[in-house]
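Chain A, query sequence.
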Amino acid sequence: LGFDAVAPLDSLEQRCAGLDLLTLASPDRDLTARAAALAGIELRFGDPERAGSPELLDAIITMRRRLDPDEQAEMRAAARVTAMAHRAAMAATRPGVHEQELAATFDAILAVNGMEPAYGSIVTVRGEILHNDRRVHTCAEGDLLLLDGGAEAPSGYATDVTRTWPVSGRFTPRQRAAYDAVLAAQQSAIDMVRPGVRYRHVHDRAATVLTRWLVDEGLLRGEVDSLVERGAHAIFFPHGVGHLVGLDVHDMENMGDRPAYPPGRTRSRQFGTAYLRLDIDLEPGNCVTIEPGFYVVPAILADESIVGPLRDVVDLDRARAWEGFGGIRIEDDVLCTDRDPEILTPGIPKDPAEIEAIVGSEAGPLGRFRVGSAPGAEGGGPVSTAS
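Chain A, predicted structure.
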C-alpha cells in the first residue's frame, strides 16, 4: 500500500504528543470534512495557499517535488503499460474507426494490466481543441489523431503522454513538416532538463525552436528571439511546455502556484506563457512533462485581443489557409537526474517512420463488438459520425 509502518489508531494521541499541530485545508470539501472530524479540530475549506499551515504545505511540496528511487520505479512501471496502450491504439487506427473505439482500446490495455487511466484520455481528430474530451468523430483519411493518455499505477503514480499520428498511416507533406518541427522542439527542450536549469527557460527553448519553423513556413515574420519575447509563437502554441507529474497528473496544482513558482517568481500575463504551469530551478528527482505543440485554432486567429498587437508579425492569410489542420502535441515524462535527463516513457513511438509502420497494422480488438459487425446483427457503426 506504500506505507513503511502502521500503528493502532488508539496510539495516535500518544505518538503526536510534543509535536507541532499543522493543518492543511484541502480544496476537496468532503476530504476536508473527514480530516476535520479525525483531527477533532475545525479546518477551513478554501484556497490552500491561504488556509492551513504554510509549514505543512512546504513540507509536502518538498517531499513530492523530488521522487525517490521507489517512486521512480512506480513511474516506470506505469510508463510500460502506457506504452502498450498507445501502441495498441496506433495499430487499431484506420479510416472509419471511431474515436470512442480507440479510447476503449487504450483503456482496455490499462485494465488488463491492473491499471486505470490517470485522467480522462483525450482521443480526438480535433487536436486543436485543447483538453478535448468529446469523442464524437469517426476518423477519416487525412485526419491527425491526437491521443493524450496515461496509466496510473495502483500506488497512485501517474503518467502523462501524448502522441499524434495520421489516421491514414502516412503523414501528408504539410503534416510531416509540422510534426518534425514539434518533435525538434520537444527534443531540444528535453535536453535542457538538467539540474540548475530554470524551467521557464526550457519552455522558451521549445518556443524558439518552433518559432524558427513558423518563420520558415511564413506564418510569422521577424527575428526569432523578438517573436518569442513578444509571445507571437503562442498563436500556434498557446500553452506551457509542461508541468510536474507524480502522484497526480498535474502534480500539486490543488495547492495553487506555491509548488510551481518559487518566491519572487510569478506567472506571466502574456497570452500563452500565462499558462506555463511550472517555473522552478530543476533538481535531481524532479519529474516533468515536456509537451510542445502546434495548433491551428480558428478562435485564436479571430480574436482581435490576441492577434491585434501582433498583426505586424503574423501572416493571418497564411494562417487561415491552415484552418482544418487540427493540432499536434508530443509529450513525454522526463526525470531530472544528476547526469543526462531520463525519458521515463521511451517505449512509445514518436519517430515518424516508426509511427507510420505501426498505424493500422492490426485490427482493433474491439471492432468485432460494434453493432452490425456480428453475423445476423442489424444496424451498425457508431452512433455519431460527426466530423
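The longest helix spans residues 69-92. The chain has one domain: 69-368.
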